[in-house]
Write a structure and sequence with these properties.
By secondary structure, the chain is an alpha+beta fold. Helices cover 65% and strands 10% of the residues. The strands form two sheets. A four-stranded antiparallel beta sheet has the order 3-4-7-5. The N and C termini lie far apart (47 Å). Keywords: Membrane, Transmembrane, Transmembrane helix.
């Protein structure tokens, strides 16, 4: 579906027509679906009884809000990624290209900030689950004013740092391949906005890469440690919980595990594979163009996992349009 050749001094990438149509339709459907599902989750979570998910609902709403931002940024940019001219090339082809170039740049920054923020939120969610289940006497820490203020300040500093790094890691470029339709040879992406890391300060590139790796390993480490602690605690203290509560706790923990693994498999792993193939001159890979077709569904998959595994949210959604009192009295022992 994607091929390339060299025409004199110009590199030419050819895209199959069916691939291009599927790419745009797939991105639009993924964006709309994610916005609807995550919007439903936020609406229904806010309507739940105060005793349902009482220590976790804020984080659940934050995750869905983050997914909405990520789906929006992904949908309006419709980005492609490739390795070209000794650097990482980002091709923005979405509706933002119809406006000024700064609109595409800001949308890309929003995409990066929300993607990295997801890997910060995941360890927080696992640690909170661990405290709620295994250390219930310390749950009040989660509502401590200093903790909340500190978290807000950290989130603000994170966003400012990510914006600064994103702006300095990639710069607009005119040095890019020619993109053509394979069937006709017609040039495409004529209005696209191109960003490249080729001319960027290597310090920012290394810093961004190390920070992303740190976030990933922190997410995986907290996932393994907290999940193991939770499952062992539930098993050892089975007599202290009802079967319904144990099942609910296990399902919610499993949901967090799946939500952590999916973006790594569809976003980070293909990136590492591509770099390995390029740096070792195994082949010129267009892997990221294909994996983005699945990666744009990350916010939708995250929402579906929440709906499937978090009983109060699922029942609240099922109860929409019915007697409102049924929604306000939902509990699950979580």
């Amino acid at each position: 579906m994607i091929s390339h050749y060299r025409n004199g001094t110009v590199d030419v990438y050819q895209f199959n027509k069916n691939f291009m149509i599927f790419r745009y339709v797939n991105g639009a459907v993924a964006c709309i679906t994610a916005l609807i599902l995550n919007g439903l989750i936020i609406f229904c979570t806010c309507r739940l009884n105060q005793n349902s998910l009482r220590h976790f609902r804020g984080l659940l709403v934050a995750l869905s809000a983050l997914d909405i931002c990520y789906a929006f940024a992904s949908g309006v940019t419709t980005m492609g990624f490739d390795y070209y001219n000794g650097g990482f090339l980002i091709i923005i082809t979405g509706v933002t290209t119809l406006g000024p170039s700064v609109l595409s740049r800001l949308s890309y920054v929003l995409y990066i900030v929300t993607f990295n923020a997801f890997f910060i939120l995941q360890p927080v969610m696992f640690i909170c689950r661990y405290i709620i289940i295994c250390l219930p006497k310390r749950v009040t820490i989660l509502r401590n004013r200093f903790v909340l203020v500190g978290a807000s300040l950290f989130a603000t500093m994170f966003c400012m740092t990510q914006v600064y790094w994103s702006v300095n890691s990639y710069s607009p470029t005119c040095r890019h391949p020619r993109f053509e339709m394979a069937e006709t040879g017609e040039e495409i992406f004529t209005n696209a906005y191109f960003l490249s890391s080729t001319d960027a300060d290597v310090t920012y590139i290394i810093g961004e890469t190390l920070f992303l790796n740190f976030l990933i390993f922190t997410s995986l480490g907290s996932m393994v440690y907290c999940s193991a602690k939770i499952f062992v605690f539930l098993k050892r203290n089975a007599s202290s919980f009802t079967e319904r509560t144990r099942r609910g706790q296990r399902r919610l923990t499993l949901a967090l595990i799946l939500q952590t693994i999916f973006p790594i498999l569809t976003g980070i792993l293909p990136l590492y594979v591509t770099f390995y193939m390029v740096f070792n001159q195994i082949a010129h890979s267009h892997t990221l163009w294909y994996t983005m077709l699945l990666h744009v569904w990350q916010p939708t998959i995250s929402a579906l996992i929440t709906i499937a595994f978090v009983n109060p949210v699922r029942r609240a959604i099922e109860g929409l349009g019915k007697n409102p009192s049924r929604i306000f009295t939902l509990t699950s022992g979580i």
